[in-house]
Amino acid sequence: MKIVFSGATVFENGILKKGGSDFVAETPLFKDFSLNSSEYFIFPAFADMHVHFREPGFSYKETIKSGSMAASHGGYTTVCTMPNLNPAPDSIENLKIQLDIIKKDASIRVLPFATITKGEKGTELSDIEALAPYVCGFSDDGVGVNDTSLMREAMQRAKAVDKIISAHCEDTTCIKDSPEAEWKQIERDIKLVNDIKCKYHVCHISTKESVALIRDAKKNGVNITCETAPHYLTLSEKNVKNDGRYRMNPPLRREEDRIALIEGICDGTIDMIATDHAPHSAEEKSKGLKSLNGIVGLETAFPILYTRLVKEGVISLEKLINLMAVSPYQRFGLEVNGYTVYNLNNQYIIDPSKFYSKGRSTPFDGEKVFGKTVATVCDGRLVYFDEEIIK
Ligand code: DOR
After folding, report:
1. Residue 337 and residue 78 in contact, taking contact as beta carbons nearer than 8 Å
2. CB environment 292-303: b (16+ within 10 A), e (fewer)
3. What is the pLDDT of residue 148?
4. Which residues line ligand 1 (CB under 6 A)?
5. How many structural domains does the chain have?
6. What is the pTM of this model?
7. Distance from the CA of 146 to the center of ligand 1, in angstroms?
8. Of 162, 239, 308, 359, which is the most exposed, with the fewest CB atoms less than 10 Å away?
9. Is 177 annotated as catalytic?
10. What is the distance between the alpha carbons of residues 150 and 146, in angstroms, rounded to a whole number?
11. What is the CATH number of the domain that holds 124?
C-alpha cells in the first residue's frame, strides 16, 4: 500500500521548484492514494545533530521510541543522541545497551555519540578506538572537558579514527552561565584543533564572542563547524520569566548575542541548527529558574524558525532548509534518508499536550506559528502522517 504526494513545491539541489516530481511512500495505514496539492512543500527530511533521548537510564524523561516519534512529527529522519546517559556509552559494553534499544524501538535513524571521557567525568578518556565504528562522533555534552591535555589527547585519538568531536564548551573556572565560560573554551579548542587538525564541531553556541572566534578560525582554515539552537536565534534574556521553560544550558543571552547569531547564520559562520532537544519530567521543570536545564525542541524547530525568521524576511526558506537538512548531513558524512511534507499556510498554536515527546517544557508554548508537518518519510516508509488531512 502506498501514498503518492504530487504537485508540491520541491526542494532540489538547493532550490525550490514548483510542481516537482511525485514522491511515494509505503504505508500499512491505508489503501493506495494520492495527495495532490500545490499547497505543500517537500523538503529533504531534517537532521538534528544534538538531541537527548535519555535511554538507557532516564526513560521517564524520554525513550528512544518517544523521541523518534517526536522527531518524525517535527520532520526529522536523522538524529544524533548525546551520551549523558546511565550507563554512559564510554565502552563497547555500555554502548551495546543503547544500540540494542535503538534497533528495537527507533522508527527513524538514531545515531549515538559516545562520550569523550569515561562517565563524562573529565578525568579519563573513553575507549575511543573501540567505539568509533559504531558512533557518529564523541561528545561530553552537558559539561566541558576542562583538562586541556586530556582534550588534546582526545582530539588526537579521534583524528586517528576519523571521527568528529562535538564539544559542549563550558569552562568551569569561569563564572557559571557567563558568556566567557562558553567562548574561552572555544578559544582554547580552536588552538588545539589548529594544531592537531582533527574534525571539530561546537555544540549550541550562544554568544557573540563565540561567533567572532569561529568566524576567524574558519578564515584561517581551521576544520571547525558549529550549531546554534532555535531558542538562541529567537529569544534573549529579556524574554526570560521565572519558569522552567526558560531554563537551559547555555542560558538565553543578551539581545546583542542573538543578533550576532543571526549574522553568523547569514554569513555561514554557523553551519547548522540543532535543537538540543532535552526533555525532563514535569516535576523536574516545575522549579522556576532552578529547574533542570533543558527544553524540548524537535516538534517546534521548523515552525518557529519558519515563522520568526523566514516569514519575517530575516533568511530565505532555502537557507533554513540548508541549515536543517543539507549542512548537517554533509558535515557528519551522512546520506539524506528521507523527506518531509509541509503545509506552510496552516496557522496554529503550539500545544505541548499534542507532542509525541514525553517532555513538554518549551518557551514556545502557546506561540502562533505557520508550518505544519503533513508527512515524514524515512527510507521510503511513512513514519508520520497528519490524519486530520483526510478527515
Ligand atoms: O539544557 C541542557 N540540557 N543543556 C545541556 O548541556 C544538557 C541538557 C540535558 O541533558 O538536559
Report:
1. yes
2. bbbbbbbbbbbb
3. 98
4. 52, 84, 141-142, 168, 248-249, 278, 293-294
5. 1
6. 0.98
7. 17
8. 162
9. no
10. 8
11. 3.20.20.140
Indicate which residue's Cα is closest to atom 6 of ligand 1: 142
Tell me which of 60, 203, 232, 249 to substitute to probe ligand 1's pocket, judged by most ligand atoms within 8 Å of the beta carbon.
249
Tell whether 235 is covered by a domain. yes
Q: Among the atoms of ligand 1, which is closest to the Cα of residue 278?
A: 11
Residues spanned by the domain of 244: 45-336
Q: Is the pLDDT of residue 339 over 90?
A: yes
20 has pLDDT over 90: no
Interval between CA 47 and ligand 1 midpoint (Å): 19
Q: One of 276, 351, 379, 386 is an active-site residue; which one?
A: 276
In sequence order, what are the residues at sequence separation of 6 or more whose Cβ sits closer than 8 angstroms to the Cβ of residue 143? 120, 122, 168, 170, 172
Residue 389 lies in a domain: no
155 occurs within a structural domain: yes
Residue 184, Cβ density class (10 Å: 0-12 exposed, 13-18 middle, ≥19 buried): buried
The 10s digit of each residue's pLDDT in 281-316 is 999 999 999 999 999 999 999 999 999 999 999 999
